[in-house]
């Protein structure tokens, strides 16, 4: 068997993190019928490299594959089969500081506003229970619409992944929405706390990753759509980890 | 008729038999009977049974048929203990479930609950009205004529979501969940309500198809699309029905997912219903978790909420606390729904699923209710008001849309809840403004006893409600519903009724009025007298008469009638209610009218204990019965006629004028005219009149005065002219015979003669086949039965002085001879054989039975040899005929019949002939041999002859080969 790893950054050539080769069967005849050959090997990174969790992104791809070659005598072609396997890291930390965050959104707290006076008045308060999140646990919190001149159309949680990678030309940054969850629809009751709750999607999230060459980070946006189609967004960076 | 009995017809009876001599000898020797002595001899000896002895009729005591549950048990054993004296009737003890079938039934009934549930206190009992009971009601009530639309694609989502650079992969994945079929947008506009229902049903079907063809993702898509429809509140008056339709689909989905995962755990053997997390294998857990992950990523709030609620039960596969953690989270999630109507129905669905999966988790139910209260003001908010203006829906109509959901939530909350909690909830409702809607549901859903005890308070609260909001008659309706099954304190009852009726009577719309009044009739009937009920009826008539409003309210009016009949069983009280008959007159549609009349008669028959002559009752019921009778026409089906006749007969049986027999007869005359189209009623009337004659005889001690004699003749005349109007031939025959017997018993000889003659003259009309319960059956058996019973009556009928000897017997036999019997039938000969015992009995000096004060032939002829000779002559002819017939049978394939007939003639000879006569003896022996010749005779039957003639049997044994 052969064991290969690819890491491609900025269309740069893949970086190999790991490579090992073991012989699972000695030369000889394979008896007729089904033959199962057990094997195992330790996952050991090359040199000073580190092993990262399997991850498929836009710019960053961390993939582990397993290739099995079967050499055959003259007149018969060699056989080969490749398959991907997933790598989950050992828990990084045993305990995470949740670092909750409180927020208040009013016209005054907003940035990037051209005409602040044309904005309808509103007060929205809330909190996130944690910005340091365990990837297997949902993101939780609460949000209260205390007042709003214009009726609310929808409140959504937008989970965004940010990939950054540096290479010869400088560095590239790409933000991708990976999940959008609506937590309120219509003109919700004022003063009544609405739960913030989002499960991290399994295939599209991984622990926050920072290496010398690239970064994979996550953010959540609380998006409030007003009935007059005003869109209010509040951004919260998250740190995901495995416990 | 006369020709049949003319002496000339007698010689017609065949006499061409050649061996007469032998048989005439035989029948001169009809065995002399001493009936009294025989009776003494034949009586069984009474042997006292010891308590310890086995005896089949002894009471059977059953050991534990009910106390133990499950398994096959409950052996029946004849108890030998002294307790056996308690239940003297073995049949009644059989009825208590000792037979094996009811034992099985009882066992399986007791096993079912233990199979499906583990803990009793966690179950929802039969006292909880299930959702299935509400479904139909909601679908029927919330309908619309507006056009509906189904949008199975939320196209606007894509553009509004502020995604900057969604990767292709992610995009497809998100779309996958949104589209039913790749890239398709299906918007169905302008659907009528029925179209809409059909479309939803199609979706339900395609869900099942997708599931069964293993397209799980497609199934999920369908469910998501369906739940999305619940966020759409256009055509708002249809929303409750839409909710019902779509949650049906969700229920289906939830069941499919649960069963799928459950079956994954069933390898190698099924897991018990009360499984724990440890019983679930990893594959099943992983699959289950996948479902939850998929659902958690549904973008929109409402589908995410509904679909997760639908598979709530699946949490059992993952961990112990899953359900109790999920329920509060979903409850809180509903706060995100802005539209109060959509939110309240989502709460109702969550409560419904919660009650089903984890009824012990009361906190979530309560939380739902308190959240509902907290967001209650939304209902009166601007967003809702604007929507109502656009849709042109009025506030009271809009508010009633909430009722099914709030009723349901409160029903779940109130189920087995302590009074303290209910009181607290009621107090909280009180504090809210515009709370009529809640108040209504509280009265509807809380225990009736709870409501009834506070009825006066509730009335106060109803009065305080805003006039413009929730309709007050609905509030009173809900209160009335509770009071119909639970009683308020006695002192408050009259004030409650007065207060309620004050409001009800002011309701303008007849439909609203009757809906409410109908409910309160129950309370009125339950606690008050005919005076109050009469007042209520008067009020109903007043409201429902203008513009013939009653035409649209038959179901409610029928229900009013039903309630009155439930509480008033005394018909003289009922009919003395001044407004009762005018109320009955409001049922003007024929079919409804007959239904109502039927229900009145059913109650009368069930509850009237004593016969009555009360003119009020008689007049009223005669009117009711006439209505039923007059509804019969050519198109009326047999079953309907039968049930109507049954009811009318029940009435006729209950009419008695006591000693005033003439009055009774004239009632029957009137009834005959009134009910002429229902044959069973006419038959009943004839029976009644016959009974009347017999009653007269009993009162007179058997000797009629001139007056009573005339009266019983009048009775006979009534029957005589009534019977021919019947179409059923056997009814006619039996009634002629019966009336003849009654006439005879009353010493009306010529009338009796006329009846019996009439019966004989009708005989040739008997068709070969008759219809019995809709099937064509041969009439032969019925005819033979009748003839036998007719023959036994003839023993006591004295010969008419102007007619020949035995003219009725001969007339009957002539008819029998001329009748076209079925081919290959022995019926005729069987009649001949049965006539022999009659003739033997007639030749006795003293008859087996006679009628007091009527001289039978025994007295008339006093054993005159000419009379005896005439009997012998008849016997000869009969036996000749029988032997003739036996011969023909010998020639054909009829040996089996020959044997059987020979044996029956043999038994008759044995019983009624004097076998000491040699020739007779010889004939009997020949018959015995003939009957055994072909081995078709059952020896057991032939040996188990009655002890009366065992001695003859012994005599015969000497001749036996």
From TrEMBL, chain A:
GO terms for biological process: intracellular protein transport. Gene3D superfamilies: 2.60.40.640. InterPro entries: Arrestin-like_C, Vps26-related. This is VPS26 endosomal protein sorting factor C. Belongs to the VPS26 family. The lineage of its organism: Eukaryota, Metazoa, Chordata, Craniata, Vertebrata. The gene is VPS26C. It comes from the Eukaryota.
Automatic annotation (TrEMBL), chain B:
InterPro entries: VPS35L (IPR029705). It comes from Pygocentrus nattereri (Red-bellied piranha). It is found in: Endosome. Belongs to the VPS35L family. The keyword RNA-binding does not apply. This is VPS35 endosomal protein-sorting factor-like. Residues 58-92 are annotated as: Disordered. The gene is VPS35L. GO terms for biological process: endocytic recycling; protein transport. The keyword Protein transport applies. Keywords: Endosome, Protein transport, Transport. Residues 74-85 have a biased composition (Low complexity). GO terms for cellular component: endosome.
